[in-house]
Amino acid sequence: MSAxxxxxxxxxxxxxxxxxxxxxxxAQAQFWTVNILGRALVYGIVALSLTFLATYGGFVSLxxxxxxxxxxxxxxxxxxxxxxxxxxxxxxxxxxxxxxxxATLAGLLIGAIAVRTRDxxxxxxxLALAMAVSRFAExxxxxxxxxxxxxxxxxxxxxxxxxxxxxxxxxxxxxxxAALYAGVLYLVRTPFGLVLxxxxxxxxxxxxxxxxxxxxxxxxFGVAGFIAGCGGVLTTIYNIGISPGSIGLGASVNILIISxxxxxxxxxxxxxxxxxxxxxxxxxxSLYDRDRFNTxxxxxxxxxxxxxxxxxxxxxxxxxxxLRLPRRAQAARAAETG
Amino acid sequence: MPPEPALELTGIGRRFGALHAxxxxxxxxxxxxxxxxxxxxxxxxxxxxxxxxGDFPPTEGRIAFFGRDITGLPAHRxxxxxxxxxYQTSLLFNGxxxxxxxxxxxxxxxxxxxxxRRPGRGDPHLARARGLAERMRLTHLEERxxxxxxxxxxxxxxxGMALACDPxxxxxxxxxxxxxxxxxxxxxxxxxGLPRSLTLVLVxxxxxxxxxxxxxxxxxxxxxxxxxxxxxxxxxxxxxxxxYLGKGH
Lengths: 338, 249
Fold this sequence. Notes:
heterodimer, A: mainly alpha, ABC transporter involved in vitamin B12 uptake, BtuC, two-stranded antiparallel sheet, 75% helix, B: alpha/beta, Rossmann fold, 6-stranded mixed beta sheet, 4-stranded antiparallel beta sheet, globular
């Protein structure tokens, strides 16, 4: 995606709460700001970590929601005001960096464990790790409060405004998403990012040129862990807490679905996919039979993947050439007759 | 005393189980020489090539590089000493641009390989990558992804990447394989334009490329050296004619 298009999208997102406020009643506008756009941003950040790994390294990991959850649990365990208080007492200014640090370390650890696996084996090993962590959280009462999880993680108070105030939450999420998105775009043009892409294209040649493939792989998982950790803190505040369900199989697969429907091929796909997911997940129940709304969600995603294997972003890239083709045919016909 | 040979193979042999792919090959390549190794399929050319590059060790004999015994060294150590190579099937980074491929090849041989800092405008590695692109006549394609390149352009890029770590000896594995007739003169001009400080060894199947590019031609058959002669005499050599035209069988 070009820089101009990125800036345009960012400008639209900046203005979105006010535009929504003009277009609909206040309560509805708030719902869209937080529960559709805000939710799309925070889960989009988690999906961004997967898109980064898959697009530039060729690694499809199912453990990114788990890594996000480690940051979320880290904050929930440490922070004051969480219910039940496990360690507690820490302000958000300390608990949030600690949670993100824990997620980064978890990312590095997962990267090191999976360093020799590729493709389906990588998918399986990350899935196994994800399930192990969520089961552990579910059965451990002392640290994770078991099935119930930890509630009342409401976020800090910034400038005297509670974090969950709709506009503050939205703009904080937008700022985090934009910074991480720009960071990924910068990173992939650095030597580290280029080597990562070289490993994706041809790991043996990259090693033959003198690069340490294992080191770069583990570092990539560490970077993805940091991104997922930032997303995990925000999703935990969005959900006002965290429970094993938020890092379970369904949640892990949802991140994969978001990345795939958005399109693995460009980081923006994570946010596009996340927005589509949030809209359908929210409105499918009212559009279709309440008991069968999952069928509608499944069909829409199946349709997207069938029409465009590289997701919505891939589809958008092809539109210009699809439009150009008939025009050129018309020009040829005009030349023949004229 | 004659100058030390760039490459000296003494009684080199390699067995793969019962197959004796290369046997008793002795070769001396002088610094700056252009040497072509020819032979029909199965003559042991590629095995010999891989033995020199260090993909696997020989089962007998000795390999010396400017007088230094490198018989037991692994491939990446030989690369660092100055033996560059190209691959028969291009092993390029298809998703990256031409300049990115060259930049990675330049950086790979040097310290500071792991970095999160973007190269600036005056970055010496980037400047060197640009220089290589120019030498390989690829400047106009620098920003294009490798997947857009023609077969011949990929071969040019492959040579550029092999030159990135300043080799003293450049090993070319069938550089003309699969090239269209239109791409061949470009490749030949490029090979001829390489400085004489570089020693070239090219393993080739095709005489039309090998002969104009070389000073001395070694013809192999059944794993051993059959003939060694200058290019102008190789065509009229009765042994070579027998190998290539099948006379005397």
